[in-house]
Amino acid sequence: MPQSPHVVIIGNGISGVTCARNLRKMDSSVRITVISGESKYFFSRTALMYVFMGHMKFEHTQPYENHFWDKSRIALKEAWVETVDFAKKSLVFKSGETLPYDTLVIATGSKPNKFGWPGQELIGVQGLYSKQDLELMEENTQSGIQRAVIVGGGLIGIEMAEMLAYKKIPVTFLVRECGFWNNILPKEESELVGRHILEHHIDLRLECELKEILSDSSGRVSEVITSKGEKIDCQFVGLTAGVTPNIEFLKNTDLEVDRGVKVDEYFRTNVPDVYAIGDCAEFDKVPAPDRRPIEQVWYTGRMHGETLAHNLCHEPVPYRPGVWFNSAKFLDIEYQTYGTVPATWEVGQLKNFYWEHSSGKVSFRMLMDLEGKVLGVNNFGFRLRHEVMDRAIREKWSGGKVMDRLNHANFDPEFFAPYYISIQEAFKAEFGGNFHPSKKTFIQKLFGAKV
Amino acid sequence: MTWIEKIGLGLFLVGLTTFLVIPFLGTYSLSEELVKANTKAIHQDKMAEILAPMYGQEYSSNFTFLSAFGEKFDAYNDDLKSQQLWDEVIWDDYSFALAKAGLKSPVRDSPWLFFALAIGLAVLGGFLYNFRQHADEPEGIKNNGIFHSKLKNRGWIGMITGFFLILFYVVLYWFPAYLVNLVWMVNPISEMISGNPASQWFLYGLIYTLAIIVMGIRMFRKYRGNKYQQLRTASVMFFQTAFAFLIPEVLVLLNQPYFDFKNIWPLDYDFFYDYQIATFLSSGGVGMFMLIWGILLIIIGVPVFTYFFGKRWYCSWVCGCGGLAETVGDPFRQLSDKSVKAWKYERWIVHSVLVLAVVMTGVTIANYFSGFSFLGNVTNQLHSFYGFAIGSAFAGVVGTGFYPFMGNRVWCRFGCPLAAYLGIVQRFKSRFRITTNGGQCISCGNCSTYCEMGIDVRWYAQRGQNIVRSSCVGCGVCSAVCPRGVLKLENGPEENRINDLPIIIGNDSIKIHA
Question: Which of A222, A309, A443, B340 could pair covalently with A23 via S-S, beta carbons 3.0-4.6 A apart?
């Protein structure tokens, strides 16, 4: 009897693990090995900040109990891959050990960007991506930090700021752009988050870049110099200016790489039986007009993983992402987005509806095409139901219809302020529309729910 | 810590220390009159004789007094037992009544002073500590540092807290005679409310209620900005204060049976005991109303409310055990075990307790209607076993004493027969579910970590599957701590309650269902 094929997955992040789990569900005989040098067991990378802040212990970030992997017959190998011998179909580990594969899935994720700043390798200067980064950050911030500087205004930057604030370390947050995350967020939303950052006593410096990091005599960071020439004394520097595919060990091999591992819409690389998914994959053409060639989001990683698992077991299908969605939390403010909401657009090209609560912490934006069909929404400080928004955008509902159903789309807990009523009223005042704003329910009246 | 929190903590510790010292104050002495006044008529002469050697002696502590009492009393009983004269053995325990009567102490002389120094300071301190918490922070999740805390992560402060809680329950249930000073301390309050002297149960009820109120204020602060948490906290504070504490005492004042209108069999396991039934039947219209009300809650209230709202209507909005768990126990919610193994134990244990309670009650009722010809007094043995093992040891000592070790819902999860009953309804016939929001879950684990019932919420959330679990008490904390807005407690149509959406919405390549 021929041995069942051996699928080896490098990387046990969300993409690799989703692929492994779905492979097992679809094929009970295939041999599966998942390799990671970072951590034997899968954990949720996005939760590392909560470990630092004492919300959870590291083991709480592991979505499956340890016995799950044995039960699913997914072999876990804790090792770092040194290189891949594509000709022999074999992995070579740092230890010199080798492992043959029939099918190889590369899911090695990302690493923090470092743009060649002078002093970027000093002690106390780091990014935050891996479990090891977390451990390093715990060590680096143990004591003696009077101030920290964070460079780069993205999601990891604000997480790092929140983490440092937990330790009561004053933070200066250098953001190159003129608004927080304003390559993604429209102006109003970017300002909303910016205000909230200041509310948390984080020293947000917009349009300010890092020029140089200086050290003391022991090789530890002691100050940074900004593009404006200002010196800031600090003992810790967080580099959070985005991430880049983690494929160093694959360069100068037969595998075609650019910024990431080049793949087609079936996740196939130029080498037969070798695939790449998740953060480290770079599509040769974008999967959809509103997508980028490298998708570095938790949810896209999952979709890559499940789609590739399907393709390895069944008739391959091309990767076709549906309506875009994403979410994040900026300190205390939750953010969700559905569909396409670019940071900027030409006036007269789209219809724009924006509502903001007087607290300045809750907002809703809906973009529509010129016919009034919804293209996408941003919501801050309250929750929307994914299923409803996905349908609205997929079926190109009119803005009025979205408003009409906004009470069904509301996903805030019971008794919360019914923001959707104010949003409906504001929309009606601005755009008209054939719908009536919702009435407060009996329970909402009873408990005095108000916006 | 702000200065006001420091003062609060300081006052609380002074109050707590006073509370712990009070039981050791004063002296004890007995006289024949005292003994006769505090024993049943049939035992009066005998007890007076047994305890005669103690008359006129002054005992300097509760230990010496109770050991002398135990010596005399046990000697008498042991002798009869060895001769198998079971009918002459005195089964009643008079140690509490006699210790209470024989006490001379400054606490008995000035109860209000000691009440102010012990409970007053503890409550004031707790209030000061809590009422301004997080004042200078924006609204949001306040879980910072929980796993770095020596109290909330099974550190040494947690161990000491657990030890004291367990000790308190053991003494309360089985050695209440050591607490007579504390009982005297709250005597005037009892006299005010019900017109009767305080018992250890009055002391317990008072502390319990105050603890829920003070820690309820903490909940208001911690969950500022979360209306669901605020309302249900206010609800448990109200039901504990009014229904569990005040109304029963006022009923006694009005010469009616002591009755907690929100306590439901089988949590209220003695509801169908013969003496309870006798009380209801002998108390006219009010008693009859109580009996019918209690039965209606069991057969209509539980299924109907649980159908519409899930078991949360009781467990995290009304129940007294739940009230304590959700307020005093909230700092420990993250300590519940989420493993599949724990879930397995939970199902076996909690349903066994339910079966035991049902069988015990069935036998009791059958026996009652057969005029005690069915089993005679055997049901009493069953009652005392259940009362000891489940009512006291499990619900009290383990249920609350283990907060700092196994989380705040040990009893509710593993032991409460009413929770098991509500859970069966919730699982199979209810509109309640926790809806998960499509694909937005990032598997971070906050929901599972903070689930007091040990439900691995994330297991469902990351599959986009609604959570329909019998044990869920609907506290809503999973939804509160979710950083991505994935979870929502909802009541809705039964159809599609266990949903069949794709695991991830938004992948048009393939659709994988959970």
Answer: A309
CATH architecture designation of domain A125-241: 3-Layer(bba) Sandwich (3.50)
CA distance B396 to B176: 14
CB pairs under 8 A between A and B: 169
Q: Could you say which of B104, B133, B155 is where a domain stops?
A: B104
Dist. CA A232–CA A208, nearest whole Å:
12
Nearest-Cα distance to chain A for B400, in Å, is 23
Q: Model confidence over B273-287: pLDDT tens digits?
A: 989 999 999 999 999
Residue B450 CA to its chain's centroid (Å): 21
Which ipTM score applies to this complex? 0.95
What is the longest distance spanned by two Cα atoms in chain A? Answer: 73
What region, left, alpha or beta, does residue A17 occupy, with left being phi > 0 and alpha being psi -120 to 50 degrees?
A: alpha
Residue A93 distance to chain B (closest CA, Å): 29
Residue span of the structural domain in which B497 resides: 431-514
Out of A50, A56, A322, whose CB is closest to B506? A322
CB-nearest partner of A55 from B146, B458, B501: B146
Instruction: Read off the pLDDT of residues A73-103 as tens digits, 9 standing for 90 and up.
Output: 999 999 999 999 999 999 999 999 999 999 9
CATH 3.50.50.60 residue ranges of chain A are 6-111+244-313, 125-241
Examine residue B90 and state whether it is found in any structural domain, yes or no. yes
Pick the closest to residue A55 from B457, B134, B153 (CA basis): B153
Categorize the per-residue pLDDT at B85 as very low, low, confident or very high, splitting at 50, 70 and 90.
confident
Reply yes or no on domain A325-446 having CATH 3.90.550.10.
Answer: no
User: pLDDT digit string (tens) for B13-54?
Assistant: 999 999 999 999 999 999 999 999 999 999 999 999 999 999
**pTM of the shown model:** 0.95
Which of B67, B83, B104 is the endpoint of a domain? B104
